[in-house]
Amino acid sequence: MEAVEIQKPQLPVGDEWGQLQTLTKERELVGIYLSAHPLDNHKVLIEKLCTNTMDKLSDTESMRGREFVVAGMVTDVTHATTKKGDPYGRFTVEDFAPTSSFCSGATTRLSVPLCSRITSS
Predict the structure, then answer these.
(1) For residues 117 and 121, what is the distance between their CA atoms, to the nearest angstrom?
(2) How far apart are CA 116 and CA 112, in angstroms?
């Protein structure tokens, strides 16, 4: 029997991913960030300036009427229209805790810097 030589495939050379792209792919494939968290560079600032984390916002009754400061990344945005035709939006914010979703009506104006003040109503 004659030996057959098989060529090894050549791997294409691609651009190296930046940290944010690497973390995004980790999250997509595994469901969690493995090597770091996208907010790690801001952790000290977040801990010093923010009064709440996203997971504490789910207790809406204790937060009603209180001003609080949170920080996070907007990870999802949806634009929609009510049955009456009024526009509204839903967005998801993520910090080091589980994500939180918010709705914003047409009359609500939100400014979202690294840390944003939001008063619950």
Answers:
(1) 13
(2) 5
